[in-house]
Model the fold of this input.
Amino acid sequence: MNGAQHILQAFHRHNISTVFGYPGGCIMPLYDALVDDVGVEHVLCRHEQGCALAADGYARASGKLGVCIATSGPGATNLITGVANAHRDSIPMLVITGQVPSGLIGTDAFQETDVLGMTLGIVKHSYLIDDANTLPAIMAEAMALARSGRPGPVWIDIPKDLLLAEVADAPFPAPEPEENSHPELTQALAMLRAARKPLLYSGGGVSLANAEDQFRVFAESSTLPAVVTLKGIGNPGKHNPWNLGMLGMHGSRAANRAVDECDLLLVIGARLDDRATGRLDGFAPNARMIHIDADAAEINKLRPADLAIRGDLNDILTALTDALVHRPLAISEWQTQCRNWHTMGGFQAADNEEPLAPITGPAFIRQLSRIAPDDTVIACDVGQHQMWVAQHYQFDHPRHHLTSGGLGTMGFGLPAAIGAQFADRQSTVINVTGDGSFMMNAQELATIRRYNLPLKLIVMDNQCLGMVRQQQELFYNNRESQISLDDNPDFVAMARAFDIPALYIERTDQIRRGIETILAFNGPMLLHVAISREENVWPIVKPGASNRDMIDETRRTSPASKEHIA
Amino acid sequence: MTSQTYISMPSYTLNCRMSREAAALERLCQVIRVRGFRIARMAVESAGDHIDIALTLEGTRPISMLQSQLEKLHTVAEVTPGQASGVQVQTA
Ligand SMILES: Cc1ncc(C[n+]2csc(CCOP(=O)(O)OP(=O)(O)O)c2C)c(N)n1
Ligand SMILES: [Mg+2]
Done:
């Protein structure tokens, strides 16, 4: 068995059935081995960035390891954005790239780049194979590492000659699971009981730890008022009466107010990112903090914790739930207070009753949320439309909301949706994108067609880089600079060129029909939604300001903006 | 440069034991830089299958923050802090 065949065999052993890749010179031995392998489905995307982001979306939606493959040089560099995206959001990923033959490394050979050196800052770990006999151990270690503790991408760069070299195959024992006991739990409970205004603050770490169910049980049984970060959306479930929604820069007034006033913050699987906390010295000024996370380096990184617990969230949440079930917290006054804030300061957007009125982003997303089936996966892109999804779509599970949180990668949505559809061919997957973001990985329309994926695309077209335009309007004296996209291609014609049917809507009374039509269609379909150019995301915290200083809507979109959508 | 100022920059020593994998040193140096520290002195000694690195570092952020980031590196086996001191650093 050669190195390439061994890699495929390691996939089988670890139940990896789908990989995303693109061939080229130095990785050709692996592609040759694929010809004889029927157990691994290889998805050919149309750009390596598409491969990496599809692997990322696959991992987010399924909880499994995402795998992407590329050749040396330009293949590897094209992967980088997608791998950085996975790194910033702690997504378990295995990256395999071919490298020039061992003897040519360091000679500036054709398509040689120092992949190991170039990617150090965006991987959890990486290897350059220099001896074929180390490959089995490294494959096993890499797959375990990508998934363990705080997950992340692990990159294996392997010279072409070693893909062809004989490998002595020996199965490797799985690493022993960590045994943890948490004496801190008693103190955590004491702090919770002593608090008058405790608040549950959760992030993406909950689903990364596969602790969604246990978190849900804890959130419901503790009856703690809860806020979520962008990546924690869906953690408490959409029917939890104490869920105040997303906090932070585009969070709700209610969520930010609750953080401002709470006296105990119970942080679970979150790293206190600046987009969530705003200016740190104004963040939760009256609160003590319990920080529970899988990554020791996140504890005390930005804000000192009064109590830190590092370990498996499932174990910790189970213990906390058990302790609270017997004696619930007495916090009814605080709960009432939070509910009132939520009623007054939750995300609101009036549905426009005027049938001929132009479509606004929030109204459209609220309709989508009502019409789409319960377990729909929404893969967002980056910009205003992403924030409208976060604010106005009611998610019942964190794995239903795929969003590029840490890196904010435009072009994420379409390949991520492809990955999510491969994770579950039966599920409804919708990519909600903007006119700017859509063009960043539009080549992947060909991948949708090739594999006949039934996924739906919604392009929210405001003819501009809306999120940048908004910040120019609010923070740069409305001096617009390089944000106009009024020469966009005809997205409907573009989709049709890829043999994907498409529909255009621009009026409020067309929303329902538009959404129902694409959802009912048996195959991929694109909905091109013209929305007003001037609409902003409200509320907003100025970058660097405290969340307490949220700015609310200063001006309703005027009908004058209609002319932009003609 | 004629004018010289003396500022007090916190300085720390860290001892680090790591495996001899490719790029182990680069990884270490990169994390030190990205997390806001400068290397004032670095002694590297290889011993068997691992290497020992004695570092003197300068930076204004808490050294514990760097230590926990270094401990996350797969190649790092152990990080032990030495004495903290407010060394006079000469800057031009
Ligand atoms: C790859 C990349 N380049 C640039 C940015 C900066 N950026 C953030 S949002 C945005 C505008 C996105 O425009 P669009 O997709 O049309 O979404 P909209 O805000 O209009 O809804 C830009 C340029 C980014 N996040 N990612
Ligand atoms: Mg736009």
Observations:
- The pocket of magnesium ion (ligand 2) is lined by residues A 383, 434-436, 462, 464-466 (CB under 6 Å).
- The domain at 361-535 of chain A is CATH 3.40.50.970 (Rossmann fold).
- The radius of gyration of chain A is 24 Å.
- Residues 556-566 of chain A have pLDDT under 50 and may be disordered.
